[in-house]
Design goal:
alpha+beta, 7-stranded antiparallel β-sheet
Length: 262
């Protein structure tokens, strides 16, 4: 029904919990790994991978849901990869339009439009940082070289940007601002998930890069992975173009307090 599809396309603006990591890999490029959690487990049955073509050429690949018009996890092979995380609203919502007077777009649709019109990492980061949207969000972006960005947004524009550099070897984002460590505001175990991710990356950062197996191990670790809420996990390598999403961990995988049974 049209009403159901419309509600699905606006669900991100209501609630969505996620964890995302950008880190260097063995080949000298970067990877983006993410989980997407939602208190709507019925969506798992609608998980799909899509390949979007234009003019007979592959434009981008993405993991989404049947009927959802936006994109929250996607990669333009050889260019960049992106993952959107939910951010809680601080203060009143902007009525009508953004500061520029432009209409506010659903976050997923704004990201989809950016994917379709931005051919480079730099263009995409700038677009996602500035387009007026209906809700605040975080966006993690990895390039096909050694660039990575952690963007914090409200409806009107960018509030903060962290980037990979000499003193920043990896980026981790859950559902709190990266500068906020107040436990009383941590309604979604964001600080806990970030601490777990940091601990699991210690050996990789000491080595200088993370392996594919280490990234998947991080994604399947409780509470980054929540059996009843995680809809899918994805690892993206924009440099090589490899892209993989999984709904559930492999049988016997250690996920924290218990093993995954199938």
């Amino acid at each position: 029904r049209p009403q159901v599809l419309a509600m699905l396309s606006l669900q991100y603006e209501a609630y969505c919990a996620c964890t995302a990591v950008v880190t260097s890999t063995e080949d000298g490029s970067v990877a983006l790994a993410r989980t997407l959690d939602w208190e709507f487990p019925e969506l798992k049955a609608l998980n799909i991978d899509v390949r979007v073509h234009r003019g007979g050429r592959l434009l981008y690949v993405a993991t989404t849901w049947a009927g959802y018009i936006g994109m929250l996890t996607a990669q333009r092979p050889g260019r960049y990869a992106a993952a959107v995380n939910f951010r809680e609203r601080h203060g009143a919502q902007t009525p009508g339009g953004g500061l520029s007077g432009q209409p506010l777009l659903p976050v997923g649709l704004a990201v989809r439009l950016a994917l379709e019109r931005c051919s480079t990492y730099t263009e995409f980061v700038q677009d996602v940082a500035t387009i007026p949207v209906m809700a605040p969000f975080y966006c993690m972006v990895a390039s096909a070289t050694w660039e990575g960005a952690q963007i914090t947004r409200d409806e009107n524009g960018e509030l903060s940007r962290r980037q990979l550099g000499d003193d920043i070897t990896h980026l981790i984002q859950a559902n709190m601002d990266h500068w906020d460590d107040d436990e009383s505001r941590d309604t979604q175990e964001s600080l806990v998930r970030c601490r777990v991710a940091t601990k699991m990356l210690q050996a990789a950062m000491a080595r200088g890069y993370a392996t594919e197996a280490e990234l998947w191990g991080l994604l399947w670790k409780h509470p980054i992975y929540e059996k009843d809420y995680t809809l899918y996990c994805t690892v993206m390598h924009p440099s090589s173009g490899t892209y993989r999403s999984m709904c559930d961990p492999p049988e016997g995988m250690e996920i924290g307090d218990q093993q995954q049974q199938q």
